[in-house]
Design brief:
The protein is mainly beta and 134 residues long. The chain is built from two helices and eleven strands.
Length: 134
């Protein structure tokens, strides 16, 4: 299996390569009012709108103030799409393992935790936020 690996703070995370559509840099994210802290806003890229999620905040790490967004990972799968912001990108790795239930792998001397975009999507869809929270 091929995984795309990146870092969020000191944690190595991976997503199956089939979900990764593009890696982009120097893009403008438009903020949206009344959204959770980890929701950075919307990205318009090549005729499509993407929700942009700051993974560090999403995973519970404190948000760094006034950071530039160096790279954005665009994910697409089964009529869904979103963009995520990692702290750093490691690259593609190949893991010879056919088990479908694993969520942790080892790459060099690091533990790589796998993320499933559907799990992120479900968590985002289940949130209640907006004007009724003011």
């Amino acid at each position: 299996m091929k995984f795309f690996v990146f870092k969020v703070r000191d944690e190595f995370l991976g997503i199956e390569s089939q979900y990764v559509h593009r890696i982009i840099d120097d893009s403008k994210v438009t903020p949206v009012c009344l959204t959770p802290e980890y929701y950075e806003g919307l990205l318009y890229y090549r005729g499509e709108l993407f929700d942009v999620i700051n993974l560090a905040s999403f995973l519970g790490y404190p948000k760094k103030e006034n950071i530039e967004i160096p790279r954005i990972i665009i994910l697409k799968w089964v009529n869904k799409k979103m963009a995520i912001i990692p702290d750093d990108i490691i690259g593609m790795i190949w893991i010879d393992d056919d088990s479908e239930n694993r969520t942790v792998y080892y790459y060099e001397s690091h533990v790589v935790r796998l993320l499933n975009p559907d799990d992120i999507w479900k968590k985002l869809s289940g949130l209640s936020y907006g004007p009724h929270k003011i």
